[in-house]
Amino acid sequence: MASLISIMSSKVKEHGGINLAQGIPGFEPPIQLLDILSKLVHNEIHQYAPASGNLQLVKSILEKYSTFATFQPENLLITNGATEAISLIYTYLNRKHKKLTVLGFDPVYETYSNLPKIFGDEFIAFALNDNLVVDFEQLEKIVIAQKVNLIFINTPGNPLGKIWTKQEFEKLLNIIHKYNVYLIIDAVYREIYFKSEAYIPFEYFSENIFYVNSFSKLFSITGWRLGYFFMHTSHSHQIRSIHDYIGLCANSVMQQAVYEYVNMSDFGRNYVEKMREKIANSYNLLYESLLEFGFTAPRVEGGYFIWAKLPQTYTNGYDFAMELYDKEQVAVVPGEHFSSQGKAHIRINIARNLPEIYKSIAAFKHFFADNSESARLFKRMTSIKTCHC
Fold first, then answer.
1. Which of 95, 181, 217, 308 is least surrounded, with the fewest CB atoms within 10 Å of its CB?
2. Residue 373: pLDDT above 60?
3. Burial per residue of 99-125, b for 16 or more beta-carbon CB atoms within 10 angstroms, e otherwise
4. Burial label, 182 (beta-carbon count in 10 A; 0-12, 13-18, 19+)
């Protein structure tokens, strides 16, 4: 089956409307970055970039992370987006171990559950308790019983914007190292937090841990496809060899543009701070409105999305999403795309400017008002037809 994210996004691309389905930021990239790009297109940088990444950009990334850990160039690889980074790591681990048993935290981002399907591996969705709490005793039991050897985690999460605490990471890492499990930390939303920055356990970095990030969400350039990841030196040679054949290199022009921009802007600090504030405002506004409409949703601390359970009168997220788009031209993602337990849920992208958020809220309000009126009319017509007077 095609990705429900793609299906809902395609409706907007073909017929118009508001796309709250796909994780596309509603903001323009930094104007300085676009100015740099416009000048670069006339330079002689249109051939293959180094396979490991633009050497200047590699150096800039290493300098940015130097306050957290001491990484060398061989620990870093620039890729065609975070998706290629994750797929590359997965390909390497599958080749290394022949068979993987993979665990992700429910609701699960689509790549984590679909990569095991592609490779014929087993996937386990581990549900969180109320208040987004992890039962680590139960997690350890499953790791032992199912012989789990790879765990995915994203922080802040997608579709659920949970930020993992240092204490939670320490408990997870205890399991990771005790049972020799690999951990892929997907941190593409790391800078998108509402109060406190997401903790990443760089001080515990080992050959069991891979750290993935990208520039896509950071600078609102998802179409540029620029990601990167850190790995232990022991994996470097084999992963780079695989990358030569399935990725080769990321876009040379885009890498140079990003390097020049981060070098002159303190890694886009002002832009990112303003974007973070915009997303927090959109989150608060849309979250409170959804509660008024009868949705329930856990409070989260970052990321691009709201994971919301439908009002009690609705039980099917797929039908709801289709009807919402047909009537109001607002696209959201049915929750079943991320969880077998999410059929009464939807995922909503909040990384949009306030005017679009206001329009979306008005559309939701009209949708529920229209449906309530239709229900009343149906009930009235039914009572007339069954009247024996």
1. 95
2. no
3. ebbbbbbbbbbbbbbebbeeeebebbb
4. buried
Question: With bands split at pLDDT 50, 70 and 90, how would you rate the model's confidence at 379?
Answer: very low
Q: Which has the closest alpha carbon to 230: 115, 100, 69?
A: 69
- 75 vs 70: CA distance, rounded Å: 10
Q: What angle do CA 112, 115, 121 make, to 5 degrees?
A: 105
Residues of the chain with CATH 3.40.640.10: 31-265
pLDDT of 378 reads 39
Q: Which residues contact 23 (CB under 8 A, 6 or more apart)?
A: 5, 158, 217, 222, 304, 305, 349, 351
pLDDT score, position 39: 95
pLDDT beyond 80 at 12 = yes
Task: Name the amino acid, one letter, at 37.
Answer: L
pLDDT tier for residue 371 given thresholds of 50, 70 and 90: confident
The pLDDT value given to residue 374: 53
CA-to-CA distance for 205 and 211, rounded, in angstroms?
A: 9
State the Cα angle at 102 between 205 and 114, rounded to 5°.
115
- Spatial neighbors of 222 by CB under 8 A, at least 6 apart, are 23, 24, 25, 216
Location of each CATH 3.90.1150.10 domain in the chain? 4-27+270-369
The CATH code that applies to domain 31-265 is: 3.40.640.10
CATH fold of the domain at 4-27+270-369: Aspartate Aminotransferase, domain 1 (3.90.1150)
pLDDT grade for 53, boundaries at 50, 70 and 90: very high
User: How large is the angle between the packed helices 233-246 and 81-97, nearest 10 degrees?
Assistant: 110
Are the CB atoms for 212 and 188 separated by under 8 Å?
yes
CB 201 within 8 A of CB 166: yes
| Paired strand residues for 151 | 103, 183
Full strand arrangement of the beta sheet holding 182-186: 76-79, 227-230, 209-214, 182-186, 150-154, 101-106, 122-127
Closest CA relative to residue 182, chosen from 92, 264, 122: 92
Q: How far is CA 266 from the centre of its chain?
A: 24
- Asked if 111 and 212 count as a contact pair (C-beta separation under 8 A), the reply is no
Instruction: For residue 1, name the pLDDT band (cuts at 50, 70, 90).
Output: low
